[in-house]
Structures are given as structure tokens and as C-alpha cells.
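Archive transcription. Copying these from loose printouts into the bound notebook so they stop getting lost. Printout 1 of 2:
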Amino acid sequence: MPVPVIIDCDPGHDDVFALWLAAGNPAIDLLGVTTVGGNGRLEHTTNNARVALTVAGVDGVPVAAGADKPLRRELTPATWIHGDNALGGPVLPAPTVPLDGRSALELIADLLEGAAEPVTLIPTGPLTNIAMLLEQRPDFREKITEIIWMGGSTGRGNVGAYAEFNAWADPEAADLVVKAGLPFTMVGLNISHQALITEEVIRSIGAIGNETSAFGVELLRFFCAAYDAAEGMPEGPLHDPITVAIAIDRSVATVQRSHLDVETKGEFTSGATAVDLHDMLGKEPNADIAITLDVPKFWLLIREAVANLK
């Protein structure tokens, strides 16, 4: 049976590929998509989610807008990577996928309530919406199988010295979600930097020859150019789809059970994810930390999903 999934995202180039992987793989039942301010402001991330589904010919999946800013901070969009509209590169078509009238929390609540079995939540942006859900509706905990989050890092970050962007954007929300006690997998920079967008990857996606692949190639070229300019990485890392790949096939990544804390107050480390890989603290493990990626299997899943779309 397909895994029922809700994706909470802030598209973002890599979020688009996460949506496409979920929509194009038969092992996933994509119940709904919610958006959050992160890579771009909420109006952009919400439009971009609708564009991603429109381009791929996906219909019948509700899209709802969520939090436009972090729990206790101001939003700083990642324009240096994703551009002013959070999806730089291609000309964006007007989306035909409608915006649901419900808020993100209302949509998630309705989907969880109506689901025949527990649902996997896959957040690929700041954890603001998920934190608010767990705070406001603790009665839904039993309806959530697990949370697979793209965020954090076991080492250095990409915003300042230690923090990864999604954790840095709303560390209070990340801290709350990690402490909620639900099954939690962290897909951090340490594994996502193994999913490098090589020229061979771009050519193989372009060779699929459908509308989705052509749009995807434009996204990937802009994304790689932005990473090259910002971080000296001409082969950018496609972070977010690894979360969906793990939901499809656990063998795509190795994980280590560890204790995870999120720093919220450090002058130089706010947003850092402190992963106790060597059990120095002697605390109970509370997260699965994704460590290594089966790179060929990951890109095969991406190509197969894109080929199944419009």
C-alpha cells in the first residue's frame, strides 16, 4: 500500500523536486501540500507549490498556505540561493492548481482526521507549521506515523558557521518538534551534500523529454549557478527530495540513532543541530540521523518520478 504523506514546504528549487518525487512515485499517496515562509515569503512559496504541481500535471492534491513567519523571529528568505521569488530561472506559468481556502493547520488536521491510517509528515522547510500543529492539536499525535525533515547538519552549516537554513530560520519551532517525542528523522546537510547535481544528472533529466523535465532542467541550472556564486559549489546539492526518497525506500539512506538538540540561544550557534553521534552526553536517542546516501538509487528515483509526470 502507498505511504500516505503530507508535504509541508517552502519551494524553493529542491522542494519542487520533492513534490515531483512524491507525486510521481506510486509508493507515495500525496494527500496534501502545505506551505510556509522560508526560502521565500509565503506568497511566493505558496505560488511556487501550485506552479510545481501545475507543471507536472498533478491535480486533486489540495494546497494550503501556512505560517508567513517563524514563531518568534522575523523571516529572512534565502534569496541568495533561490532568487527573489524563491524559484529563480524559468518563467513561471500561472498555476491552475487552486489554493485551498483552509489554512495549512486546518488542512493538515482535516487530512489526519480523515486518514484511514497514520500519516507521514515530510517538512522540507522551517518547522513552523508542524510546531504549531503539535502545540495546538496534541490529540493528532497518534495519527502521525513519523516526521522526516530536511534540516540541520551533523557538522557545519550553510547560514553562519554551524546552522543549516531550515533550522536557523525557526530554531524555536525545530526545538519544539524534536522534543515532541514523535518518530523523527533528520535529513541534514551532511547527507544532502552527497546528492550533487552534476552535468550528467542534468542531462539525464533533460533526456526524459517531457514538460516537467524541461522545467526541471531550468531550475537545476539556476540552482547550481546560485550555489556556485554563493558557496563555490558549481554542482549544487538537491537537499529536499531525500526526505521523500526515504519514505519510499528506507535503503536509500543509512541512519544512526542519536540524541538531537536544537540550539536556540547561542550567539554564534543559534539554529545549530547538536547531534550526539558518539553518545558523549549519555542521553536517550530521540532521532534517526541520515548519514549516507545511495546516490545512484536516489537519482534513479528522481528520474523515474519525473518520467511519470506530464
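Printout 2 of 2:
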Amino acid sequence: MAKLGETDLDVFPICFGGNVFGWTADRDESFAVLDAYAAAGGNFIDTADAYSHFAEGNAGGESETILGEWLRARGNRDRIVLATKVGRWPERPGLSAANIRAAAEDSLRRLGTDHIDLYYAHSDDQDTPLEETLGAFDELVRAGKVRHIAASNYSAPRLAEALAVSDREGFARYAALQPHYNLVERDDYENELAGLVARENIAVLPYYALAKGFLTGKYRPGGDTPESTRAGGASAYLHERGVKVLTALDEIATLRDIPVPSVALAWLLGKRNVTAPIASARNPEQLSGLLPAAENPLTAAEMERLDGASSTPAG
């Protein structure tokens, strides 16, 4: 387990991404993969009220509903660190105080719990004053409905401003950041955010940790494209640098005798402040390719090999 920043939360170093529940995994499939994750020692699950409104026939809230049913069926809420988000569901957009209060109540109901361990602003809302947003989050923390708050998709200047507002007003602070960060998407996080989160000791929980599936190794030059809802996005990384990354991942995975996606996740875990990359799986078989990352830290030489392969050329 790993401590989540300066919070009192102890989390498994691979956070399970619940965007698949009610989308690419139905209720029974979701229960099966959640059971496998918990059996392996996993305790950290990430979802959002917006999941999965983007799937045909869905309205939103499906992921939280399925997760809530599983928690009740297994009676294990006290062993799970539960993260969800507000602000990007078209039914409840933005980070106004009224919306945050209403969305939190809706999420608590769907999840069947009296508190959320980590509650995210799903993305920045520049139309609402940070004082209003953070004040609403602070109310939830003081009421015991939320333990800690976090930010997703914030720029460095806005995250710094939000932290300053919390410090000035005595509000709860963002304790974690969920950025888009992986071996083939490094620049935005490393150039803009890494220094800030290090100074502020904020936990980092990267999403798209496997680059929409590209870093699983399933997508290869000249190969058949796997059938997947994310195939188009993953295939976009089949450029020269992406192929170099796959080559380096293959080398390390072969020497370590662990799956390629676990090496990609272990690289993230080797980065300062990264506590638990977020990764999804539709079934226990896919999950088995992710979990070895938790127990196989990379050496300095392996980190350097992957850093070199994934560096953006100067120019």
C-alpha cells in the first residue's frame, strides 16, 4: 500500500478505473473483475458521475450504480477507497456550489454510501469562482460526506491558484491531481505540473496510463487492429517514437517475465509523486496484465531506457 499524498488514505498502487462499468463491461463482467481486483489486494477504485453517458443507450451514472451494487453485495465498503468526480456530466455540468452539493448527494445515493473518500473536480470550471467551488467542497468535507478533495484536468496556474485560495480561506485543499500522463504523453505534465505537485506534495494519479490501450502492446505496426472502442485512439501512437517505446517495453517485459502493460505502469510508479496510475480492465484476464506493476519496481537503468525511448525529440 502507499500513502496518498498528505492524506490518511492508504491505497493499492494500481487504481482501478471504473469507466468500463456499464460501458464495455456489463454488471456481471464488472462484478467479476472487481472481485479479482479485491482478491489481489486492490482497494482503490475510480469512477465519475459522468460514466458512462457517452455509451449508446446510457444516460450517465451507470458506473457508480454498478459499483454501488457491488459494494453492497460484497459488504466491503470499509475496505475500499472510493473516488468519484463532479463537473463533466451533461446533466450536472460545472463546479458551482449548487451543482457540487446536488451531484454529491446523487453520487452518494448511487454508490450506496455515506461518504466519498476522494472527490474530484472532474475538470476546471473557469466560469465559477474558485472560492465558490472550493467553499462547496469544504462544506462537504466538514459535513463528513467527503474525506478529501482532488483535481483533474487542471493547468498548473489554475491548480496553484486553487491551492492559494484554500490556504487563504481555510478551505480543504486539493490533495491529489489526476492528469493525462503516460509514456507517450509526457510533455504537458512534466513541463507544467510536475514541479508544482512536488513542491506541494500532491499525490498524482495519472489517467490514460496505458494510452488508450496502446501501451498494452496489442497495437503493432502492420498488425491487425484489435476490436476495441479505443482502437482508433490507440493506433494514433503508432509513430516512430511510439514504436521505440514498444521496443523498450518488450525488452524489459521479456527480461522481467512480466506483462508489457505492467512495465508501462511501473514506469509511472517510478516517477516522483505518482501514487497510483489509473488503469481499466474489462475482465480478470486483462487485469492480470496490470497487477504485477505493484510488486515490480523498475531499476534506474530500466527507467532511463524508457525515458530515452519516450523522449520527445528536440526541435
